[in-house]
Amino acid sequence: MKKVIHTDKAPKAIGPYSQAIENNGMLFISGQIPVDPATGKVAETIEEQTEQVLKNIGAILEEAGYTYANVVKTTCLLSDMANFKPMNEVYAKYFKENPPARAAFAVKALPMGVMVEIESIAIK
After folding, report:
1. Tens place of pLDDT for every residue, the chain, 124 residues?
2. Which residue range is the domain that position 47 belongs to?
3. What is the CATH number of the domain that holds 97?
4. Angstrom distance (rounded) from CA 32 to CA 56
5. By CB neighbour count within 10 A (0-12 exposed, 13-18 middle, 19+ buried), where does 32 fall?
């Protein structure tokens, strides 16, 4: 059964979508951008932005009863592939052992002019 997941510890959806949907032990987290949910501000550097995105994902995982260890797939969207290495260095801190499958793409633009957006799938 489809269950909508929402937490105030991650940014509110800025469109007609949910932060995450859980169904049959699978959690589908919508693309998260680096908005601090407490202030509505966006960090400046790619490292800070990646850190905030992964904190937002962590808050949603926690709300649904999952952890980073449950994440099996991510998709990383970057405004510039020159940011791949610094994004990857921050990302690696969250997925130290048995990291999830992943795709990374450069895109023309991201919401609010951010440098990184990451979507995730987790399974219990």
Report:
1. 899 999 999 999 888 999 999 999 999 999 999 999 999 999 999 999 999 999 999 999 999 999 999 999 999 999 999 999 999 999 999 999 999 999 999 999 999 999 999 999 999 9
2. 3-123
3. 3.30.1330.40
4. 7
5. buried
Other CB atoms within a 10 A radius of the CB of residue 6 amount to 14
What is the total count of domains within the chain?
1
pTM: 0.96
- Phi then psi for residue 65, to 5 deg, are 85, 25
8 A C-beta contact, residue 23 and residue 3:
yes
Cβ 7 vs Cβ 100: under 8 Å = no
Q: Render 6-74 in DSSP notation, one character per residue.
A: --TTSPPPSSSS-SEEEETTEEEEEEE-SB-TTT--B-SSHHHHHHHHHHHHHHHHHHHT--GGGEEEE
Compute the distance between CA of residue 68 and CA of residue 39 in angstroms, rounded to an integer.
24
